[in-house]
Design goal:
- The protein is of the alpha+beta class.
- It has two domains: 138 residues, NADH Oxidase, CATH 3.40.109; 112 residues, putative nitroreductase (tm1586), domain 2 (NADH Oxidase).
- Strands 4-5-6-8-7 form a five-stranded mixed beta sheet. A three-stranded antiparallel beta sheet has the order 1-2-3, with helices on both faces.
- The longest helix has 19 residues.
- The protein is globular and about 55 Å long.
Length: 269
């Protein structure tokens, strides 16, 4: 994938699709890409294309497509972050093909989807997405959903990113070469647009923290840790594209938190 900026800025969550099937060529490219998706945690994520009509799957917020993709993996530490990273790679690749997606973790018949994914006892399926060509006009339901979560709004750069400690907001000018990778994090999608990522930048690293919303708990399926995986993906892709050679590590830097922020991971630069 190239031009991460265009893919991130050009993508939106799509729930209303043209009623025409995804082309065979695009399906083949999706399958080939899914087969080689990785993540910095080194945890294998299995993807599967699903047919809603044939497999009796329902998702009330989606109109115009029967094609879905699901992701599953063995239950393990960092399950959600790994799936978030890997699934966002697929989402951005689909965007490069002109295929629309939307992250779905709750508004679906989960039991039916898990059955279609042939989920084993020791596996989890955090999310699915429909796949299809976006309709020219959104449904009224989709329009209202986007307004409800202020889907196009993002928090200010200085509210999300910090210099050396959580006491000092980071400006784009101070971020220098990291300004663009961090902007790609700022524009990332998140569950009901809560934007839970916080990043503290030091001389040689960017440290990612989760600032949890009270409406989201933890557990095996943790949507806000999935969001953190998405943020890591955006940063990693943009930093690599800028030639910064980021190196993924998990080593808490000992930064004092202010509001219960939870350390997730770092990229050394």
């Amino acid at each position: 994938m190239h031009d991460i900026d265009a893919l991130v800025r050009g993508r939106r969550s799509v729930r209303t699709f043209e009623e025409k099937p995804v082309s065979q060529q695009d399906l083949e490219q999706l399958r080939a890409f899914m087969a080689q998706i990785g993540n910095p945690y080194g945890l294998p994520v299995a993807f599967r294309l699903l047919d809603a009509k044939r497999q009796n799957l329902t998702c009330p917020v989606v109109v115009g497509t029967d094609l879905y993709v699901g992701a599953k993996m063995k239950k393990a530490p960092y399950l959600n972050e790994a799936v978030g990273y890997s699934f966002e790679l697929l989402v951005l690749y689909a965007q490069s093909l002109g295929i629309g997606t939307v992250w779905i973790g709750g508004t679906m018949d989960r039991a039916a989807f898990e059955s279609a994914m042939e989920l084993a006892e020791d596996e989890a399926m955090p999310c699915v997405s429909p796949l299809g060509y976006p309709a020219k006009k959104m449904s009224l339901r989709e329009t209202m959903m986007r307004k409800g979560v202020k889907a196009d709004d993002r928090m200010a750069f200085e509210s999300l990113f910090f210099r050396n400690s959580f006491d000092v907001p980071l400006t784009k000018a101070e971020a220098a070469k990291l300004a663009h990778p961090l902007e790609m994090v700022r524009l990332a999608p998140s569950a009901v647009n809560k934007q839970p990522w916080r990043v503290v930048v030091t001389d040689r690293a960017a440290h990612f923290y989760l600032k949890r919303s009270r409406s989201f708990g933890g557990g095996t399926l943790d949507m806000q840790k999935i969001d953190m995986g998405i943020a890591l993906c955006h940063f990693d892709l943009a930093a690599k594209e800028a030639g910064l050679a980021p190196r993924f590590v998990q080593a808490a830097p000992g930064i004092v938190t202010k509001d219960g922020e939870e350390y997730i991971a770092s990229y050394q630069l």
